[in-house]
Amino acid sequence: MVAPTCWRIAAPCGVTLPSSTIASKKSADVYRVAISGNYGVHSPDPTFKLQRMDQVFVRQIPDWQTQRNVVVTGEVRYPGIYSLKEQNEKLSSVLFRAGGLKETAYPRAAVFVRRKANAGRLAVDVEDVAKHHKRYDLALEDGDSLHIPKQPQTVKVVGEVGFPASVLFEKGKSLSYYIDQAGGYTDGSDKGRVKIVQPNGKVKPKKGLWSNPSPEAGALIVVPHKPPEEKKDTLKGVATIMTILTGAVTTIFIASEATK
Question: In angstroms, rounded to a whole number, what is the distance separating the alpha carbons of residues 47 and 29?
Fold first, then answer.
């Protein structure tokens, strides 16, 4: 808060204003009263007293707010809770205050969660931020948390495969390699909608049946089941074709009989 301001009306209601006041169009006197750190009022004039019709305003300090905290855990030098120093403190600043990344850190798999407005996990390239690039260096909010894990050693495969499992990561190996290691596709696999969730949270869909991207260490491969609607549409299409063919055969038979 800042020092209170007292507005004193020049004359209470029902009292005639002096002609000098009317001429100057002055309707109130303004007094600024000093205030101590313990919120005790110490006026320069010890005889100052409030009068009837006075109005007192205690205004808020501009941009004042309560302490805002973020949490940094995992492979940094000094994990813990950090209070934001300024309104728009950036992620790179807090990483610097946390001592930077350890040699064992795997920033590609960092998990950044924003509690504000239930935003949840955000796909933030912490590796890019750690290299002092500005693209993902976002301003932090109260309640944000960042976890930086150690280097993962596996790629997890789930969904419509023979044996969902975590497969040992091998650099340069493609999507099909990991699916084969997990037992391959099943009859119910929707091969066209396979997705790779990279360790930083970004989702990389498989583009077409012949696409064969390479997952990163710590990635999650999701093989979905074929939607029931697609099977029904296929059967419906077959039934429609059979009906058309049957009708055509019947028409040809009738035409043939009529020409005899």
Answer: 16
For 83, residues 6+ apart whose C-beta sits below 8 A from its C-beta are 67, 68, 69
Q: Which of 51-65, 139-153, 190-204 has the lowest mean pLDDT?
A: 51-65
75-89 b/e (C-beta count within 10 Å ≥ 16 → b): bbeebeebebeeeeb
What's the one-letter identity of residue 115? R
The sheet that has 55-57: what strands, in order across it? 28-32, 5-9, 55-57
Of 130, 157, 137, residue with least CA distance to 215: 157
Q: What pLDDT is attached to residue 37?
A: 63
> H helices of 67-191, where?
91-97, 126-130, 175-181
Q: Report the 10 Å Cβ neighbour count for 107.
A: 22
Cα 122 to Cα 130: distance, rounded to the nearest angstrom: 17
Chain segment 92-116, per-residue pLDDT in tens: 999 999 999 999 999 988 999 999 9
The β-bridge partners of 111 are 147
Strand 55-57 with 145-148, pairing: unpaired
Q: What is the pLDDT of residues 191-208, one digit of tens each?
A: 888 999 988 778 887 776
178, 175, 183: which is closest to 206 by C-alpha?
A: 175
Q: Which domains does the chain have, with CATH numbers?
A: 5-57 (no CATH), 69-148 (3.10.560.10), 154-223 (3.10.560.10)
